[in-house]
Design a protein that fits this description.
Order of helices and strands of chain B: EHHHEEHEHEHEHEEEEEEEEEEEEEEEEE
Largest sheet of chain B: 8 strands, antiparallel
CATH class of the largest domain in chain B: Alpha Beta
Structural class of chain B: alpha+beta
CATH topology of the largest domain in chain A: Rossmann fold
Structural class of chain A: alpha/beta
Distance between the termini of chain B: 40 Å
CATH architecture of the largest domain in chain A: 3-Layer(aba) Sandwich
Oligomer: heterodimer
Number of strands of chain A: 10
CATH superfamily of the largest domain in chain B: P-loop containing nucleotide triphosphate hydrolases
Strand content of chain B: 25-35%
CATH class of the largest domain in chain A: Alpha Beta
Largest sheet of chain A: 6 strands, mixed
CATH superfamily of the largest domain in chain A: HUPs
Radius of gyration of chain A: 19 Å
Number of helices of chain B: 7
Strand order of the largest sheet of chain A: 3-2-1-4-6-5
Number of strands of chain B: 23
Radius of gyration of chain B: 24 Å
Shape of chain B: globular
Number of domains of chain B: 3
Distance between the termini of chain A: 43 Å
Strand content of chain A: 15-25%
Amino acid sequence: MNYQIDHIRELESESIFIMREVAAQFENPVLMFSGGKDSILMVYLAHKAFYPAKIPFSLLHVDTGHNFPETLKYRDELVERFGAKLVIGSVQEAIDNGIVTEEKGFDASRNGLQTSALLEALEKGKYDAALGGARRDEEKARAKERFFSHRDEFGQWDPKNQRPELWNLFNGRKNIGEHFRVFPISNWTELDVWQYLALENIPLPSLYFAHEREVFKRDGTLLADCEYIQKRPDEEVFTQMVRCRTIGDMTCTGVWESNASTVDEIIQEIATTRMTERGGRTDDKRSETSMEDRKKLGYF
Amino acid sequence: MQTELLRFTTAGSVDDGKSTLIGRLLYDSKSIYQDQYEQIERVSEKRGEEGVNLALLTDGLKSEREQGITIDVAYRYFSTPKRKFIIADTPGHIQYTRNMVTGASTANVALVLIDARHGVVEQTKRHAIIASLLQIPHLLVCINKMDLVDHSQSVYDKIQDDFEQFAAKLDVKDVSFIPISALNGDNVVNRSEKMDWFEGSTLMYYLENVHIASDHNFIDTRLPIQTVIRPYNDEFHDYRGYAGRIAGGSFKVGDKIVALPSGFSSEVTRIVGASGDQESAYPPQSVTLLLKGDIDISRGDMIVRENNQPEVGQDIDLMICWFDREKPLKPKGKYAIKHTSQDVRCVIKEVRYKLDINTLSRDQEDKEIRMNDIGRILIRTTKPLFTDPYRKNRVTGSVIIIDEGTNNTVAAGMVI
């Protein structure tokens, strides 16, 4: 008998193990759903982990109000397919209630404002664990993240004082008011995710595939032309075949020149590309440690 | 596409060329992206460094970059057509023993770096001892900076002898040696032309081919139950599935099993895996078992075979590594324990000795166990645990100890 499993199945098993630990160790966990491929993968893994029972977590979408319309359509179909419960944390509402102030100017983005909306949604729902689809290969601060990541009563991350994590023993103990962020797909790389999506035939939002779009160039990145971004006078709009490698808010998600229109072509493209997927994220470029700084405050 | 997953750990300071070596592996396997490279190029220049400092790839936190040291475990990923690799890159300094232990806990291979100019030093020994304590199945000693000793075979032979003499006292099963120059890439991915006296394989060849298929225990059948799956709907009205990750041995449909602690017997009727029903299951698969009849099993229980059962007991002999910065181990103190899917409490009954990590000698006078100390203790738990010796099974033989006041993980323990 052959007792071997390949690396994709081993990662899958590890993620399912983590999700089951979350269901067992926490009272009221929630799955943070952005509409991107990583959170889609998370929903499918959660489905497998508890099949034939329903996914025991609600899906939480922190909505900046600046979404690609395709994201919302996909989200609603997915929620329906799995009979999941959807909870929305709204950045617009946080602005309207005066909890946060909108950024002004050409580089204005609601990305940073998501943190407040997220923390408020977590508090309102009394969630004690928030599952996220962050991966360690994405960004250098995320490379130091634990599977079970402790947050204090202000939602803050203390990277210098993290709990050691050994074997498959995950310590989810906490005081009242504190919560955990849990990252079941920590060990997956971008390529692993795509290989799995292909293997499992998982449908994806059309944004990931090459399509024609009105775009303009800023600081070497292509951005989709939309009402939410104020263009500088010298920024010209043109039509281009592009696709998204990550999906976030329209104001900070760069699009890539690409002709990849199937998952296999995307895998081919990623295997040969020389740029990281977050290379198109203007939110990461604000400073050398912008991800670490945002994470300490409670960003995903 | 069948590719295996290999996890390895590296320890050492920047001076050993560890970061250069990791940088080299990532660079030569094309896992460093252009924008990452440009970013560290910019930072290196800003800091007035000569050339591109590949260490910046692994030092991610602000304070690490400021101090030029690695504080925490950093995980790095690369793959070749044969395997996917996860590197747990840990700082080698004595005050970071806890990070080395963390990185070692899941590794298949420990990569120990030795500076050819300095030979076997304290840090080498410490890393080898940890690899042995944590039972990393394979130990690979890379003798680096061979370019600085004229690629000399006699220097290499001497270091190998020294290491083997020291390792004879340890419990390591599989040790290999490779002379390399991480800086020039000799014997890393490509064979060195300057060391034709060396007949072994390159580092990359070793990583791609070392036999890891039997690193799991496939003999002693164990399934710790994480959660019970009950759909509560009409279609699956009587469905009751016991979910967990196989920790040892294998299960087949039709197998007779025993549930612990109840001791009730039953038979496996179905195995539901991630891709649907399967005939058998083995480590490290996550599955759901369905059993004949209605028996009461819940989280923390363990499903095993009748003729092969773990130790069931409340008095447990442990080798521990202490992590807590502020407080030493309290003799007679009470702590929480996590073992497989069980949560129990325990009292420290006895501290037997403290192990000197540099000499392996046992200190029975000073038995205060502080951060980064390794010691042997005896505990009594509130409920029986189902354990195997750590040497036989890293999953059922490991525990973590938690301070009930702070909720911090304060120690890692291995069942003797």
